[in-house]
Amino acid sequence: RLSRGESGCVPRAERCVRCGTCERRRDEMKQAVVFSNKAAAAKQRTKKVLAGTEKRTLARNACVRAKAEYAGADRVLGRRDSVRARSAAAPEAPAFQEWSSRDGQKREDIKKIVILGAGPIVIGQACEFDYSGTQACKALKQEGYEIVLVNSNPATIMTDPGTADRTYVGPMTPESVKDILIKEKPDALLPTMGGQTALNLAKALAENGDLDELNIELIGAKLDAINVAEDRLLFKEAMDRIGLKTPPSGTAENMEEAHAIQKEIGNFPIIIRPAFTLGGTGGGIAYNMEEFNQIVQAGLTASMTSQVLIEKSLIGWKEYELEVMRDLKDNVVIICSIENIDPMGVHTGDSVTVAPAQTLTDKEYQRLRDASVAIIREVGVECGGSNVQFGVNPVDGEVMVIEMNPRVSRSSALASKATGFPIAKMAAKLAIGYTLDCIPNDITQKTPASFEPSIDYVVTKIPRFAFEKFPGSSPVLTTQMKSVGEAMAIGRTFQESFQKALRSLEVGLNGWSGPKGAATPTEEELRYNLRTPNPDRLVAVWYAMDAGFSTEEVIELTKMDPWFVNQLRCLKDVGEYVKASDLESLSASDWKQIKSRGFSDSQIAEFARVPEDVVRSLRRKCGVVPQMKRVDTCAAEFEANTPYMYSTYDGEDEGGAN
Length: 658
Known about the structure:
By secondary structure, the chain is an alpha+beta fold. The protein has 23 helices and 18 strands.
């Protein structure tokens, strides 16, 4: 009755302002024309509400309803750009502007901050921590703090003149850092930007009593939180307290304890994870007693506390990780979900990963999200970013917590570039007292950082290996990281971003196919490469499909999720279609379908056995050219002031010109 405008129901100011579609049948609501008309009418009503003198609640509710209607029309009509046109026509509701007028909570009792770098670039700890340290230096300097940087590696951006007020290049040892602290007399120490090196240094300085002696506060992550997250036994106990499962395991500090735990767990394989290490250093998967003894000894040596976690293997389970941020007022947001294509048993730094997670239902994602929030609160990370990793049983959906990093991690750099949300910068601001609802989003400048990023594209990260530079090393991937770099690509679909990432590796691949001039592997070699995690596993999948392996066989051998294998099968089928087609007979729709799946001109030319410039000419003749899309953190919900772009062959151009 309200929608029909009948009087006498409620006061006029509280009357529903929606159109009469609320009484129509659901199937009629799905029609594109109805959605389009609703969106246009809602835009006009919202402008009137915002221009009038109605109550703020009415304006906010009208804006929310209008946004829902806009989203419905965009989903049906495939219009993403319409949001940008609307942003110029109608201002944002007051609900999206109030945050900018709130007083910040920046700490005034701190004047000088020491930031610990990551030290030398090694496998498992490389330039991603240079990125986070540089972001932190710049962010805190802008807030007026005096910044002192400590790092042993001069070949970094963070050690460039001007990044910090004062830079010390020297050994990353407790004794050396203590001498610097005595000289500089800082008020606070920020250890969460320098990877495991910085975290271990902060732990040593705090436990030695040096920080208390010099009256220096640990910010970003307190000692208790570092210990709970990094100490395998304390972390397991914390998970038990909040009712989350961890793999059956035990902690050992010597070989005798390790053997007792192995007997209790039972069958091999068994995973060994050292405490307080990065990139799985010293850990691995033991398939027999000889390997078990070797890996446990290496783990005890690598751990700064001579502690290893010995746990039941979850090999074959699906692996996910969530980037989480928390502030001092207990606001918690999920920045990004990341899914590993490889099943458990491969270090996430060595696995092909996809963001956002592709094979989770909404219910499953919400379960992981709730668990991540509970974990960061229980561990006690008061402010800043953390990374939580989960294993999910593909058979029954059982969830187990693998581990948590109470700092900016390798995945944080990936998530920052994937979403446009600068995790390191925000974490630095949270460490000095700001809260998420008081920090503006860097890109939109209209929403606070407490708005969780929303992305309408897919990001794929593929690691790069260089085993040829390490003679004698085994090219088998386990829980110890072995990659020396990685490439990231953005596309509208997984297929597109996956093929773009392969080309970005610069290893001679022009997409997902066999390398030029490479010998075709035998069936025995294919089965081994599919079953055993190795750098060439995805190429082996292509060879297997080319050799006639069924999709079910590939799934059984690799233990990859069926969704990913079916996506790869689709790419293989499209490639075969291109090989069998006359390029001159392809329509514009055909070209768009092929290009939107990430096939490059050089790849198509190789399939069709024609020069690349011929492919490019035919494609352009059909009017199929790349468009630019925005990375804006909000899936076009708000106008973006400082976006960066990616190219694709799907949808309208958002860059102003091709």
